[in-house]
Amino acid sequence: MESSRPGAPPAREPRRYPVAPIVFGVIAAVVAVWITVVAVNDRDPEATVEAYLTAITEKDVDGALALVSRYGYGVPYGDTAVFLSPEAIGDDWWVVSVTETDRVLRSTATVKAVLGGPGGTAEGVFTVDEHDGEWLMSDPFVRVRFPPSPLAYIRVNDKVVPRPYDLNNRRSYVLFPGTYRFYESVRDVVETRGTEVVAAFPPSDSHETTIVPAALTPGRETLAQLQKVLRERIDECARFATQAPYGGCPFATDGEIDTPDGKRVTDLHGLTWKVTTYPVAEMTDQRTDQYSAGFTLRSTEPGAMALSGSGTDSDGNPATFTVTCRIDLTGLLAGVGADGKVALVDAPGARTPAAGTFNTCLRNT
């Protein structure tokens, strides 16, 4: 079945049903139902696929889902179906042709569809089943996953949703067939290199496609937000009168400090932290694998804290001290929302004072 023009179904002669004038309302209702059933049954597998794809190109979500069989996987719903929306449907593709290629037991048909777009054509196949005299699409969706990334959101064409907490990457989504751009750049927030248009069709099995953003470069608003969020985190940590304020703080002592005169002081108490210098940081996409949860942070201008308190020095004498402690950002990653807001998260395997591996107040660290 060939379309007369891109994106338009083929012209057909209107169906006419010779019905005699009806006087009684009950009889009229029966005839109307008979006409409707005949019209539905007249839609063959090719016409079903074309109607489904045409509804998608027109961003008629309800019209497309009405052609999906309730058997098998059925019609997706809830969070899984969040991208079955007009905003997630591309504008730059059309139906070129649909052709039935196989029929099994007269109730299951395989239909090949060719889609056109700016980059040429792509083809895929659909399964259409007959139920109660009506041909319906069988699981005509693309299944995808979006693993953790430095972006705190998922973008499919123009649809943007916050990334849910999904530590084990078990959440999957469905898309309509069509063309897609994933994780396009957001002005002043993040630049995504390597974004290309891809055509998506239902797989021949239950395979799920994994989508990760390409190389990322933070924008100016994001970098400005990073400095603000870092200062807020450091100020919050400085309010704690403890050796290690809490996880996620970029400074700590594990119970020992080195004084300027070369003494090591232990048994620390009466501690106060004060900001000496805030760091200036940059964030880079240094993913060694594709599933890193954030941007790597690096100080371009170092920061420092002043730690004051009392303890016992290496000679066993009471000591009071004020020492300078580094601000160390290596245990933090940064995630970025589509609005440019930055959130700090602990890096996997980050050093902690409890493990005796994080002390920014020793001279040899």
Topology at a glance:
Blueprint: H1 25-41, H2 45-57, H3 61-65, E1 94-104, E2 108-117, E3 120-131, E4 134-137, E5 142-145, E6 153-156, E7 159-162, E8 173-175, E9 178-180, E10 190-192, E11 198-200, E12 209-210, E13 216-218, H4 220-238, E14 257-258, E15 264-277, E16 280-284, E17 295-301, E18 304-312, E19 318-326, E20 332-336, E21 342-346
Parallel strand pairs: 5-12
Antiparallel strand pairs: 1-2, 2-3, 3-4, 5-8, 6-7, 9-11, 10-13, 14-15, 15-18, 16-17, 17-20, 18-19, 20-21
Description:
The chain crosses the membrane at residues 21-40. Keywords: Membrane, Transmembrane, Transmembrane helix. By secondary structure, the chain is of the alpha+beta class. The protein folds into 2 domains: 1-6 and 23-214, no CATH class; 220-355, no CATH class. The chain has helices at 25-41, 45-57, 61-65, 220-238, and strands at 94-104, 108-117, 120-131, 134-137, 142-145, 153-156, 159-162, 173-175, 178-180, 190-192, 198-200, 209-210, 216-218, 257-258, 264-277, 280-284, 295-301, 304-312, 318-326, 332-336, 342-346. A 4-stranded antiparallel β-sheet has the order 1-2-3-4, with helices on one face. It has a 4-stranded antiparallel β-sheet with strand order 14-15-18-19, covered by helices on one side. Strands 16-17-20-21 form a 4-stranded antiparallel β-sheet, with helices on one face. Strand 6 and strand 7 form a beta hairpin. The longest helix has 19 residues, at 220-238. The N and C termini lie far apart (73 Å).
